[in-house]
Specification:
With about 130 residues, the protein is α/β, with parallel strands linked by helices. It has one domain. The protein is about 25% helix and about 30% strand. The chain has 5 helices and 8 strands, in the order βββααβαβααβββ. The longest helix has 11 residues.
Length: about 130
């Protein structure tokens, strides 16, 4: 945070500084996909075949629609159109609305949202799961 005109505080994004891209196989979007820490610059720099989108708290805006939109904007600036797969950890309203609203753009950018179709059962607990191969 720095002082702007009139001594008001101006927030600076410090999530990912500008620089050359980094290529990874699997990335967990930080801080439950909250827009305070992830922006377009993150997706321009951190390029991955798979992104895990966590968060299931609408009140805290997690996952954030702004983060999901930033993925589209950041990926549109990649030189290649490699396939990207999003792996949501929860079936949230934000994720469903974003998926429906931007489906055509997702297809243009070669982005796929992975739906969980398997269930893992461990002792008294069961939960949705998906398998990815790297």
């Amino acid at each position: 945070v720095s002082k702007g005109p009139g001594n008001t505080k101006v927030a600076k994004s410090t999530a990912v500084p500008p620089g050359p891209p980094v290529y990874l196989d699997l990335v967990y979007i930080p801080n439950h996909s909250n827009s305070k820490n992830v922006d377009v610059e993150f997706f321009k720099r951190v390029r991955s075949s798979y992104y895990v989108v966590s968060g299931n708290d609408a009140a805290a805006e997690e996952p954030s629609r702004a983060v999901l939109d930033s993925l589209l904007e950041g990926k549109a600036q990649w030189e290649s159109n490699m396939q990207v797969t999003l792996i949501p950890t929860h079936d949230s309203e934000v994720m469903r609305e974003w998926y429906q609203d931007t489906h055509e753009k997702q297809q243009d950018l070669n982005i796929m949202v992975l739906a969980s179709s398997s269930t893992v059962v461990m002792q008294d607990e069961s939960f949705p799961a998906c398998k990815i191969e790297l």
